[in-house]
Design goal:
With 753 residues, the protein is of the alpha/beta class. The chain has 25 helices and 25 strands. The strands form 8 sheets. Strands 3-1-4-5-8-9-13-12-11-10 form a 10-stranded mixed β-sheet, with helices on both faces.
């Protein structure tokens, strides 16, 4: 961390607010009655969230609430309020400092709609899994209601919905570019990423009576400013179309070479000259902490896909906390300012956050009279992570369809081994229903714990979007030794019978440590291990920034060898994406052939979901590849094959479910059009048969000559239901039944994809 700019004030270095004398609450209050029991006459901060309140470090409202409580502030929770009026937002009275608003652990639109824009019937973050308990674009609606309830109270928005919409962004549901959520919400401040550091500073400065309009220097925040605001004086402004011109292709490592001459004219007389421009010679860049990069205005990017892709490229190149500069984007008559990303938490700070006195249970208001959270009150996301432990944050994989990097950053923030062990022991001793099985020790990725750049100086200067694509960076420390040590210590704890790894595994990293693969397979796989090659073909993989299928094959060999050595029959469950930008029909056909050859069947499939701000979403909207540089010259820029339209998206999903008879007519038509009718037939080497089942269970006349008519057998009561794992009778690997994942949507993993 020493190479990062301006080492920040530690989370625990602030003088506590006076209300710390009240001590920690069993649960953060959700009613006036609870406040009175705690002896409170008011709340200093009220958090409004679209999720049910679960006091557990996997839920954002609990993490932020407990973190602020540890600073001495009285924090209340309004969870899933009735948004039809402002009444529910007055339940705890007027907060002394501010409202904190978040849509929840998921973007509210991804939570509500499928990749086909159909309404979901359930919500994992609601008691009973009931859908419809939060509004669309919840951040906007909640903010408006807070302002209606108490007009003079500042509103700070955050969470993954605000984080991924902090800039002008393509909105898949309306098929257009929308303004920053801060503009539409009319909130006072936006915090993005993991917000502990920013929200603590904001709370203490507001408690010191600083006006919220003065909080323009907090990292990890965005705010609005008039274009003629004199407080913006003294900044070096670089035009993004000059530093990364849409017409030139730059290297990812250092894209900024040219600065607008106007900067020199507006600089203060005594300020250092920000740049010297020569055709030959060294370029002196202005100081980063006083530099702002001006992106094309909202009005430009909404109507020009080339400028949209350019702005997205520059945004992603300015995400490293060690070298990122502030960004500014005009929206009408005002400027949206985005400060550089927050400095990652140190290990002691991570321990502090995770060691706070969480109740590790849903709020008692969700329980029935017997105190149970079963039945209608069960919260599916809580049930999923109830016996899991988050050991780290961040991901340096850089997958273009994923939003982890945009939200949590690519620098891994790890807890100490002691902190993780303490949480397992607390879970064992306090969480009702613990049977000795830990469902997961992981995070965004299971095996990035304590992995990072070997050199802090290189890390602080790097602009690469991935440390593992197109290959593993030679500066990356790939040692899995700390993780192996933790696994061994954790499973030796009294009362712990088994520790499973449920988070996704980065297998191209795992193969760098054969000892880790052996440890994992021997002790921490419960029969099945999920990994995500996402595709087999180079075209889509290059747009995803994922390794080739050869890496999967190498890991599969190691996995099977270790399973055999342990005397176990265990299987890999690979996930694949349909309809990702850069995927041709032939690519999906080849993937389907690979799936059949390897004996995999997918009961549910994952279709590309254009989440806000992701690089792949910029590809989807613009048809261009920001990874290669943006150019209006078709000979220089790279166009991307975009899978649009219901029929083509349906075809790509059908290839993943080649075994489903309902898809055979569509696949036959497509294969014939592609000149691959040779894949239609009744042999083992064919992809789909030439016959079609009829509704009465018989088959049409196109079935194999002299073949026996096979009628579907009645499903026995003991047969696994759809969605459960099935092992094929042929002895091949298991059927793939992974749930349809979305980039920002894994329950219980706050701020994940």
């Amino acid at each position: 961390m020493s190479a990062l700019p301006l080492p920040p004030k530690a989370l625990t270095a602030y003088r506590p607010f006076w209300a710390k004398r009240f001590g920690p609450a069993p649960f953060l209050p959700m009613s006036r009655a609870e406040m009175e029991q705690l002896g409170w006459d008011s709340c200093d901060i009220i958090i409004v969230t679209g999720d049910a309140y679960v006091d557990h470090p996997s839920f954002g409202m609990a993490v932020i609430g407990r973190t602020l409580e540890a600073q001495g502030f009285r924090v209340g929770i309004i969870a899933q309020p009735d948004w039809q009026s402002a009444d529910a937002f007055k339940a705890l009275g007027k907060p002394n400092l501010f409202f904190g608003v978040a849509a929840g652990n998921m973007d509210s639109m991804i939570n509500r709609y499928t990749a086909d824009r159909k309404i979901r019937s359930d919500d994992a973050y609601t008691p009973g899994g009931e859908g419809g308990k939060r509004p669309d674009r919840a951040t906007l609606v909640y903010t408006q209601r807070c302002q209606e309830a108490f007009k003079d109270v500042p509103v700070v928005i955050g969470g993954i919905e605000a984080s991924l919409r902090r800039i002008a962004h393509y909105d898949y549901w309306q098929d257009k570019v929308r303004r920053s959520v801060l503009v539409d919400a009319k909130a006072d401040l936006l915090v993005y990423g993991n917000a502990e550091r920013a929200i603590i500073e904001i709370a203490h400065r507001l408690a010191r009576r600083e006006p919220i309009e003065a909080l323009t220097d907090v990292r990890g925040t965005a705010f609005m400013r008039r274009t003629d605001d004199p407080t913006a004086d003294g900044w070096f402004e670089l035009d993004s179309t000059e530093v990364d011109r849409p017409g030139r292709i730059d290297n990812l490592i250092s894209p900024y070479q040219i600065v607008d001459d106007k900067v020199c004219e507006t600089a203060e007389p005594d300020a250092p000259k920000p740049i010297t421009i020569h055709k030959i010679g060294r370029i002196q860049m202005p100081p980063r902490d006083h530099t702002v990069v001006r992106l094309p205005a909202y009005e430009q990017v909404k109507s020009d896909p080339v400028l949209y892709a350019h702005a997205n490229r520059v945004l992603h190149l300015e995400t490293n906390p060690g070298n990122a500069r502030a960004l500014v984007q005009r929206h009408g008559e005002r400027d949206l300012w985005i400060n550089p990303p927050p400095i990652p938490l140190t290990t002691p700070e991570m321990d502090h956050v995770f060691d706070l006195p969480y109740a590790r249970a849903p709020h008692p208001s969700y329980a029935d009279e017997a105190g149970s959270h079963d039945g209608a009150t069960k919260i599916p996301a809580w049930e999923m992570i109830r016996f899991s432990v988050n050991i780290m944050r961040g991901c340096f994989g850089g997958c273009t369809f994923c939003s982890i990097t945009e939200h949590e950053g690519r620098i891994i923030q790890s807890r100490s081994e002691d902190s993780v062990i303490r949480e397992i022991e607390e879970m064992r001793d306090k969480v009702k229903g613990f049977t000795g099985i830990v469902s997961d020790l992981g995070g965004p990725t299971a095996n990035m714990y304590r992995i990072g750049c070997k050199s802090p100086e290189i890390e602080a200067a790097c602009r690469k979007p991935s440390c593992v694509y197109p290959g593993i960076c030679p500066n990356l420390n790939t040692s899995h030794d700390p993780l192996i040590k933790m696994y061994r210590r954790a499973r030796a704890l009294p009362g712990v019978k088994k520790i499973l790894i449920g988070s996704g595994l980065r297998y191209d990293l795992a193969v760098q440590s054969p000892e880790y693969v052996k440890e994992l397979v021997t002790h921490h796989v419960g029969g099945y291990l999920k990994i995500a090659p996402e595709h087999t073909e180079g075209g889509p993989l290059s747009k995803m920034m994922k390794p080739g299928i050869g890496s999967y094959d190498r890991f599969k060999q190691m996995f099977e060898a270790a399973s055999a050595a342990a005397g176990k029959k265990q299987y890999l469950i690979p996930y694949f994406i349909a309809a990702h930008p850069g995927t041709s029909d032939e690519d999906m056909m080849n993937l389907a052939v690979w799936l059949k050859k390897n004996g995999f069947r997918a009961d549910q499939v994952q279709t590309f979901y254009p989440s806000p701000m992701a690089t792949a979403t910029a590809m989807y909207h613009s048809g261009l590849n920001p990874l290669k540089g943006i150019s209006r010259d078709e000979a220089r820029g790279e166009k991307v094959d975009i899978v649009r339209g219901e029929r083509r998206r349906r075809l790509h999903k059908a290839f993943l479910r080649y075994h489903d008879a309902n898809n055979w007519p569509l696949l036959r038509e497509a294969l014939k059009a592609m000149g691959r009718a040779d894949l239609i037939g009744n042999g083992k080497h064919h992809l789909i048969p030439s016959y079609q089942p009829l509704t009465d269970g018989s088959y049409d006349s196109a079935r194999r000559k002299n073949s026996t008519v096979v009628k579907p057998a009645a499903t026995p009561a003991s047969a696994p239901r759809k969605g459960q794992l099935l092992t094929q009778h042929t002895g091949l690997p298991p059927r793939v039944t992974g749930a349809a994942r979305t980039p920002a949507a894994r329950p219980g993993k706050p701020g994940k994809r």
